[in-house]
Amino acid sequence: MLTIEHVSKTFNTPGGQVQALKDVSLSVNTGEFVSIIGKSGSGKSTLLSILGALDNPSTGSIVVDDTQINKLSGAKQTQYRAKQIGFVFQQYNLVPNLTALENVMLALEFGGYPAISRFDRATQLLESVGIEEDQRQRRPTRLSGGQQQRVSIARALANQPAYILADEPTGNLDSATGKKIFDLLHDLSRSQKTTIIVVTHDLEIAGKTDKTFILKDGKITTK
Amino acid sequence: MNVLTRGVKNAIRSPLKSGAIVLMFAISIALILSMLVARGSVLSKIEEVKATAGTAVTIQPAGVMGNMGGGDPLTAAQIATITSTTNVTSISSTLTDQLGTDDTNLTSSLELGSFGQRQQRFESSDTTGTTETTDTEATTRPAPTPRTTVTGTTDVNSIATDGGDLTIRSGEAFDGSSSDNVALVGSDLATKNSLSVGSTFTAYGETITVKGIYTTGNAFQDSGIIMPIATLQALTDQAGAVSSVTATINSSDNVASTVTALKTSLGEDADITSEAESAASSVKSLQGIASLTTAGVIAAAAAGALIIVLSMFLVVRERRREIGVIKAIGGSNGKVIGQFIIEGLTITIIGAVIGLVLGVLVSGPMTTSLVSSSANSTSTTETTAVGPGGQGGRGMGGPGAAFNQGAAQLNTNLTQVTASLTPQIFAAAVGITLLIALLGSAIPAWLTARIRPAEVLRTE
Lengths: 223, 460
What we know:
The complex is a heterodimer.
Chain A: E1 2-13, E2 16-28, E3 33-37, H1 44-51, E4 59-64, E5 67-68, H2 74-84, E6 85-88, H3 100-110, H4 115-128, H5 133-136, H6 145-157, E7 163-167, H7 175-192, E8 195-200, H8 203-207, E9 211-216, E10 219-222
Parallel strand pairs in A: 3-8, 3-9, 6-7, 7-8
Antiparallel strand pairs in A: 1-2, 1-4, 4-5, 9-10
Helix pairs in contact in A: 3-4, 3-6, 4-6, 6-7
Chain B: H1 3-11, H2 15-52, E1 56-61, E2 64-65, E3 68-69, H3 76-84, E4 88-99, H4 113-119, H5 121-126, H6 135-139, E5 148-153, E6 167-171, E7 182-186, H7 187-192, E8 200-203, E9 206-215, E10 225-228, H8 229-235, E11 244-249, H9 255-266, E12 270-274, H10 275-282, H11 284-318, H12 320-328, H13 333-379, H14 399-414, H15 423-449, H16 453-458
Parallel strand pairs in B: 5-10, 7-9
Antiparallel strand pairs in B: 1-11, 1-12, 2-3, 4-5, 4-11, 6-9, 7-10, 8-9
Helix pairs in contact in B: 1-13, 2-11, 2-13, 2-15, 10-14, 11-13, 11-15, 13-15
């Protein structure tokens, strides 16, 4: 169970203070597939960063399975990200100097997975997301957008996280590939009971999720 | 794949960029090593020059050099003052005089030559004793004749020109403290006058017995006579008079203070010189080079550090997003910093190895170049070439000859600095390099590790 209560986030910019989130409260049940939609600049990515402990809220609390993560130390938040959260980014954000296999193994290393089993585990994950054998030793620049996003999803799944946070996962893909990626995430949600929170502006995708939150000018409403 | 392999792999991910950094760093390391080697060589040479400078101090009456100049010989009281000065362990005294044709039955083995004639031109006019010189009187002056130098000494070895013992070709040396009418005769003079051990000759109206024949290889010295100083003092009616004293100091560390003490006690009546003082002025240029090389080491190390710090700073800045991603997926600050330290160390070690090899190759010629150019500037004015039979005007002899030889040896030593790469110098270069690498990688990585991943990802 993930609960956000009265979360606000203010940024200091050269042009003055900007309030990205205003008293946001929501809750997501374990195993739910949830979407957050809103226009550009509505605060979607900020909310996702706070959920993933990449950033702390200015006020309010985020409670994940009885733990208030915004009160954790930096090191504990890193552990939380490594073991409980899997990130999928719009730009894929694979490490460019590492192969597809090494990118997945990197996440396994951070999650404390035994070194001896990382190769097998990474191979199995890449296979499960449809990355073929000859593509596993390629660096990201030699993979298509869809393939990179699949590797990114395999990396997010590496440590069997309770939550997958996806920021516009299909935003850089054509509609056919985007649909395949969405289906992949959807299947994961169903088969492994992983809670998935997807930020998107694609209403079609949002329509297929269990729950959708609309974010407008930093405030949230349940659809 | 772990932090170590990721760091190494990252170091070579952009060969052109890494190559440029490695090359710049290698040059600075080569400079550091060269400067360290040059400094080490110069410092050891300074120590060597100081060590070989000896502990001899020469005291001569003010205004006197050999038989030239004016002033009075040193007195018995001044000799006693020198002997009783702290740190003076022993002294050898010398008195020199010249035998003219009226003083001896010996014929000088030196050809007067144009140089000798010029030196005697004043004395020829003095002997006329006239107040009004006419052309007629000038033509009646006696033709100048070469003279024979006689040296009275307490230590016959003080005549040796090589700084060692005098070479006695036949016979034996006399007791320096005796007052017998005995003498050692230079080989050239002995040949000219058919003298051998046991022969006699006349000087100052007394009969002198030849005790030995010596040779120095110096035409002037080999045309002279050596006597016990007491004998010469008695023959020339100069009781207790001394024209030069060589005092031996107990330690090279005490030479400077003893010279100061002697200058204070003898005042303006004596000129005091020491090899150590001469050496000190000789090594000044080397000390200048040592300071220069120290500054060079610091400058090259600073340049090397700056190259690594700036390069790593740019590398880290360029990979901010990658660092953000690593942290987002659970990489700790320690792993991020560790990865960049390994990357920096890899570049540094490759650069250092190339730089050290380069440094070993260039340090020798660089050191030789630095020292020989400096030695040239100091030795050009000090090198002396003396024609056969001529030395210090008409009659400089005694300890002065040995002193000149020692000074010449010191100057020779200055040019013999060779580049030596000791393990200590090598270790110092490696230590400086590693320190630069650690600082250069850790500082930028540490700065980036403080950034929250959301800030990096937000700007994508």
